[in-house]
Amino acid sequence: MEESLIFQYVIITVIVLIAGYSLFKIIVRNFSSKKPKKGEFGCDQECGGH
C-alpha cells in the first residue's frame, strides 16, 4: 500500500512541475513580447543584446 501512495505522489509531483514549467514559459514569453513595445530600458541585459 505504501508503495502505491509514493507512486501516486511522484506522479502528482511530476504533473505539477510540468504544469508550472509550462505556465512559467508562457508568462516569460508574454512579458518578453510586451517589453520592446513599452520601451527597451534594461532589455539589453535581459534579452542578451538581441
The gist of it:
By secondary structure, this protein is an all-alpha fold. 84% of the residues lie in helices and 0% in strands.
Class per helix and strand makeup = mainly alpha
The DSSP helix count reads 2
Give the strand tally.
0
What is the 3D form?
Answer: rod-shaped
Q: Could you tell me the strand content as a percent range?
A: under 5%
SSE sequence, one letter per element:
HH
Distance between the termini: 54 Å
Radius of gyration: 18 Å
For the biggest sheet, the summary is:
none
Low-confidence sequence ranges = none
Instruction: Work out the helicity level.
Output: over 70%
**Mean pLDDT level:** 79
How does this model look, in words?
This protein has 50 residues and is mostly helical. It has two helices and no strands. The chain has helices spanning 2-38, 43-47. It is rod-shaped, with a radius of gyration of 18 Å. The mean pLDDT is 79.
Structural key phrases:
single chain, 50 residues, mainly alpha, 2 helices, rod-shaped
Compile the SSE list and pairings:
Layout: H1 2-38, H2 43-47
